């Protein structure tokens, strides 16, 4: 098993824990983003931190996106005493958005060259979904952040 395979496994295990804590049956791209934001010292974490996105800020952005989505259908979390999510009892499976993010990551470089920033780039390349909505609501320029990741990768290749 390569160093990147071990790293990817650790990212997915953290994402699985995030999904279970959300009560989700699937690991989605936003769980991967939370996992990367929590990975102290990785390039992905450093790039996220450079725009003010630590794990807590990503969680806050995701919570804001959830509240915004509810308000779009006329539900105000402030008006209702909504229960928090129950920790999922079964191990979450890989969801479509996470699979697509991983596929985009893997297609961006040769396997031996993959790093944490490639995973982040795969997540940021999504044009629709929870992550783009959460980043937009947090005032993060997703395209600009993806460009910053690309610049970081290019500078590391030199």
UniProtKB/TrEMBL annotation:
The keyword Hydrolase applies. GO terms for molecular function: peptidase activity. The keyword Repeat applies. InterPro entries: Clp_N_dom_sf, Clp_R_N. Residues 1-69 form the Clp R domain. Keywords: Hydrolase, Protease, Repeat. This is Clp protease N-terminal domain-containing protein. GO terms for biological process: proteolysis. It comes from Streptomyces hokutonensis.
């Amino acid at each position: 098993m390569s160093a990147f395979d071990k790293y990817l496994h650790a990212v997915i295990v953290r994402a699985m824990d995030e999904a279970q804590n959300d009560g989700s049956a699937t690991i989605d791209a936003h769980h991967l983003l939370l996992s990367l934001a929590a990975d102290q010292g990785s390039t992905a974490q450093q790039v996220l931190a450079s725009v003010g996105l630590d794990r807590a800020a990503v969680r806050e952005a995701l919570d804001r996106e959830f509240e915004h989505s509810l308000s779009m259908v006329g539900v105000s979390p402030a008006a209702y005493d909504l229960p928090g999510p129950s920790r999922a009892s079964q191990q979450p499976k890989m969801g479509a958005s996470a699979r697509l993010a991983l596929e985009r990551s893997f297609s961006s470089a040769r396997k031996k060259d993959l790093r944490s920033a490639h995973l982040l780039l795969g997540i940021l390349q999504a044009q629709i979904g929870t992550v783009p909505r959460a980043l937009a609501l947090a005032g993060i320029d997703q395209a600009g952040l993806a460009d910053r990741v690309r610049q970081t990768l290019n500078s590391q290749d030199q």
